Amino acid sequence: MRHKRVLPLAALMLCTPALAGTAPAAAAPQTAPAAPSAPLRILLTNDDGYNAPGIRKAFARLTAAGYDVTIVAPLTNQSGTGTKMASAPAIAVQHPEPKVWAVDGTPGDSVAFGLAEVFEGRAPDLVVSGTNFGPNLASLATHSGTVGGAVAALEYGVPAIALSTGGLAVPDPVATVNAMDPTVDFAVKLIDRLRTRARSGPLLPKGVGLNVNHPVIGADGKGVARGVATTFQDPQAPLRPDFTDSGDGTWKVNVRLSVQPAAKGGDVEAVSADRIAVSPMNADWNTGPADFAVTSALLSGLRP
Hints:
Layout: H1 8-15, E1 41-45, H2 53-64, E2 68-74, E3 93-97, E4 100-103, H3 107-118, E5 126-133, H4 145-155, E6 160-165, H5 173-198, E7 208-214, E8 228-230, E9 239-245, E10 251-257, H6 267-272, E11 276-282, H7 289-299
Helix pairs in contact: 2-5, 3-4
C-alpha cells in the first residue's frame, strides 16, 4: 500500500530514483538464448513507470551499446510495491511505440507479461530493472519495486540486474537525474564483462541476480564513483515511521531518515564511500546453512 501524500520521503527513497568511471522457481520451458554473435536481448523494466527518466536513459544507452532492448514496464509509478503481483482476472496493456510496452500493473506484472507474451517462446538473455530514482540499499531493497522486477525475472529462470541511483539522503532531483548517466554507463560495462566471462553460457549463475546501487557524485551528480564493491544487503532499516492519532479513526504517518552505522562490507558502507555497490541476490528467502542448523536445533523434538 502506498501513501503518496503522507509518505513523501518514503515514496522518494523507495524508488522515485562498475569498473567505476573508467534457487529460483521452476519456469515454463523456454528456447535457448541467442548465440553470442547476435545482439544481447534485454527486457527493460522499472517501478517508476515506462516513461520515467531512468528507464529512458537506460533504454537509450543500452541500445547505443548494441543491445536489442525492449521496454516492458508499469504504466504508472509503482514505487515501493516490492514483489507484488496483481493476480487480477484481466490487465490493461498499452503499446505506445515500437519496442515499448506499458502494463497497468506492478514491475512483477510487467516482467510476467513480457516473458509470457512479448518474448513468448524465446526468453531474453537478461532482464534489467531501472535505473531507479533513489537508492535501494539496506531494507529499502526488500520493499523496492525495482528489485521486485528483477526478482520476478529470477523466479522464471532469467538472469536479472536491478539498477538504482542515489544514497541514503533526501535526493536532489537534478543531481540524481544527472547521476543516472554514469549509472547506465556502468551498467553497460557490467553487462559487457558478464557477457565476456560467460562466453556462450548464461550471464550469471543459475538463480543469481545483482542489485546495483550507484552513488550520486558531486553537487551536480556528474562525478565519477571511486570504485566498485561486491557487497551484501545491510540489515538496517533506515526509514522509521511515526504514527499520530487523528481522532477520527485515521492515523497521520510521518517518516524520518535514521541511518545506523553501516555494516562492514555492506551496500550502505560502499555507497557512503562513493563506491558502486553490487550485491548478489536470489529469488528465495532461504537462510544459510548455519542459521538453518540453529533453527533446526530450536525445533528439535517439537510435536503437533
